[in-house]
Amino acid sequence: SQELEQSPQSLIVQEGKNLTINCTSSKTLYGLYWYKQKYGEGLIFLMMLQKGGEEKSHEKITAKLDEKKQQSSLHITASQPSHAGIYLCGADYSPVFGKGTRLSVIA
Amino acid sequence: GAVVSQHPSRVICKSGTSVKIECRSLDFQATTMFWYRQFPKQSLMLMATSNEGSKATYEQGVEKDKFLINHASLTLSTLTVTSAHPEDSSFYICSARDGQGGVDTQYFGPGTRLTVL
């Protein structure tokens, strides 16, 4: 069974709207990584979360790890076309990934 | 579903030797393959993008003479760690891009754990 579940699988939002992507682990996370992949390109590391309740931001992208360290959410504020791509969460029990969320931003 | 294999899955070598890691797409043609490395408890870091029949594109800070990449066919890319040193010990993962039939999906290999003594 998939140890890392991501939702939604795909998302289409209008430019300027906020959105959230979730990642749920079946195991306690001691390191949760968020990556972005632009279509046809390699994965780009966005941020890592380690502590329960930790929140980090990278430009307009904010990610948080819950207190129980089994769920993380990635939030994009005022989405732009440049945010389009596939977002993947990864766990410290590598090389496990979620199946990814395909984000499209419509102008 | 599509499968990407890596060989070997684990290798231990002496300092100064070279190690070759193979990445194969088993049931699709991959015009593009990617190589990543991951240190313990750290994120995956993209090392290079490998296009079939052309030179690989390396990310900033990755030594191209140290990490030789050859994408000789549409199903095989190799990463050679030349004159390996203990600091090269890491987990190396490849992925292959399937861009045919309107699909654009990346499939990951299971990784190769390199230990340099």
Brief summary of the model shown:
The complex is a heterodimer of chains A (107) and B (117). Chain A has 107 residues and is mainly beta.
What features would you describe in this structure?
The complex is a heterodimer of chains A (107) and B (117). In chain A, 34% of the residues are buried. With 107 residues, chain A is mainly β. Chain A is 0% helix and 53% strand. In chain A, the strands form 2 sheets. Chain A has a 5-stranded antiparallel sheet, with no helix packed on it. Chain A has a 5-stranded mixed sheet with strand order 2-10-9-4-5, with no helix packed on it. In chain A, a hairpin with a 5-residue loop joins strand 7 (61-65) and strand 8 (71-76). Chain B is mostly beta strands and 117 residues long. The mean pLDDT of chain B is 88. At the A-B interface, strand 4 and strand 5 of A face strand 4, strand 5 and strand 9 of B.
SSE topology sketch:
The complex is a heterodimer of chains A (107) and B (117).
Chain A: E1 4-7, E2 10-14, E3 19-25, E4 32-37, E5 43-49, E6 55-58, E7 61-65, E8 71-76, E9 85-91, E10 101-106
Parallel strand pairs in A: 2-10
Antiparallel strand pairs in A: 1-3, 3-8, 4-5, 4-9, 6-7, 7-8, 9-10
Chain B: E1 4-7, E2 10-13, E3 19-25, E4 32-38, E5 44-51, E6 57-58, E7 67-73, E8 76-81, E9 90-98, E10 105-108, E11 112-116
Parallel strand pairs in B: 2-11
Antiparallel strand pairs in B: 1-3, 3-8, 4-5, 4-9, 5-6, 7-8, 9-10, 9-11
Quote the distance from N terminus to C terminus of chain B. Answer: 37 Å
The average pLDDT of chain A is: 88
Major beta-sheet overview of chain B: 7 strands, mixed
Strand runs of chain A, count: 10
Unreliable residue stretches of chain B: none
